[in-house]
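Design request, tokens follow.
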């Protein structure tokens, strides 16, 4: 199976990122999170006031710091805003000592596996064997401060991936900072300093990576088999992952010298599925990889499109094969069962693969596989209810009526 990696143009730049250009961290209301006891202390030192993170209010703590540890993680941190990450939307995350922000589960693993990884949802500014028992600190906080959001948006608007989003108005952000961190086993002779920002307006999402000027000195710990990995991973999706081109090699230490924004050591990635309809393009290679709609309802019908640099203008109007599968790999079938037991024929129109959607028979993650000649492209999307939870009884009636309509239509055509 052939996948397409998201590729960003990287250039050398004369400017660099001093610590003053990082978004602020280690502020006046830092609470200490103990990675062993899983308790939060309402100060920057361990005391007798340790309580569950769910008992700590934002008035008590504006920011959190991990206690000295190796391979530790934050708690399952409930954030105050939904973060769209491609076809999924998250309200909880983990900040891991080893340079990874993860959804669903923590990442204690110190030696990075190559992306794409199945069933793992990761944003990794520098996945390596961080050890802060000897030196260094890890901070994280969420913010809705207008001035900080404006500062993050200035960075985002400087990147080509924000093209067509000049009106992007972020409403929430996570700031995670690995400050002067050492490596396993308790080494203090070399340190790294880097930062990750997760920024969203609820529809569009961006990730910003900042690397301090002359601030990346080591690439692996004593027990690691490979060097650090930078990028992101969306549940094994063969389209929506990114790996920095020198990841897992010693050359990853030079990441502070390159950029896709014009400032060395700074990178911006777009990580949502929302369609930008105002953009004017001259070629398919200028488009991000998108599945639209990314959250169809279980009785949706209509068509689904897969857009991006996988396709080009010369393949326009070529016939394609579309296969919809659920998260278990079963072919999605409509009612009656014979209706969608075989692949569905679609077509390429300019930069879009257009596939008629079946009726889905279960909620949750699904895959769309598009086959063009001998090449396969896979995108993920999430099937949901067509209405709010309080109206599920109405949804059930609508689903029953829709299925009866399709059964009747199928029987008529069969005759």
């Amino acid at each position: 199976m052939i996948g397409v990696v998201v590729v960003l143009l990287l250039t050398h730049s004369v400017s660099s990122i001093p610590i003053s250009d990082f978004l602020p961290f280690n502020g006046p209301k830092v609470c200490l999170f103990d990675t062993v006891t899983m308790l939060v202390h309402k100060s920057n030192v361990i005391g007798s006031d340790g309580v569950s993170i769910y008992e700590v209010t934002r008035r008590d703590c504006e920011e959190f710091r991990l206690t000295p540890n190796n391979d530790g993680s934050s708690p399952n941190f409930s954030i105050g805003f939904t973060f769209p990450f491609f076809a999924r939307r998250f309200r909880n995350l983990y900040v891991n000592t080893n340079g990874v922000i993860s959804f669903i589960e923590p990442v204690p693993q110190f030696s990075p596996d190559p992306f794409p990884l199945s069933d793992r949802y990761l944003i990794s500014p520098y996945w390596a064997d961080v050890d802060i028992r000897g030196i260094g600190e890890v901070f994280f906080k969420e913010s809705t401060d207008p001035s900080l959001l404006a500062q993050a948006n200035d960075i985002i608007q400087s990147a080509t991936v924000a093209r067509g989003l000049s009106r992007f108005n972020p409403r929430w952000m996570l700031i995670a900072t690995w400050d002067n961190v050492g490596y396993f086993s308790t080494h203090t002779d070399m340190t790294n300093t880097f930062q990750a920002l997760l920024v969203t307006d609820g529809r569009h999402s961006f990730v910003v990576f900042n690397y301090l000027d002359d601030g990346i000195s080591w690439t692996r710990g004593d027990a690691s088999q490979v060097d650090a990995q930078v990028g992101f991973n969306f549940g094994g999706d063969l389209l929506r992952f990114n790996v920095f081109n020198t990841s897992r090699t010693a050359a990853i230490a030079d990441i502070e010298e390159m950029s896709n924004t014009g400032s060395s050591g700074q990178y911006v990635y777009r990580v949502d599925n929302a369609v930008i309809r105002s953009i004017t393009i001259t070629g398919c290679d200028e488009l991000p990889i998108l599945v639209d709609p990314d959250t169809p309802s279980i009785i949706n019908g209509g068509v689904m499109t897969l857009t991006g640099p996988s396709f080009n203008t010369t393949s326009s109007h070529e016939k394609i094969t579309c296969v919809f599968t659920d998260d278990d790999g079963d072919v999605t079938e409509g009612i009656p069962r014979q209706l969608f037991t075989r692949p569905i024929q679609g077509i390429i129109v300019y930069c879009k693969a257009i596939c008629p959607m079946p009726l889905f028979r279960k909620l949750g993650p699904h895959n769309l596989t598009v086959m063009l000649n001998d090449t396969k492209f896979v995108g993920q999307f999430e099937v949901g209810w067509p209405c709010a939870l309080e109206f599920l009884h109405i949804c059930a009636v609508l689903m029953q009526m829709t299925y009866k309509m399709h059964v009747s239509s199928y029987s008529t055509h069969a005759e």
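Comment from the thread starter after seeing the answer: thanks! The first strand starts at residue 11 and ends at 12.
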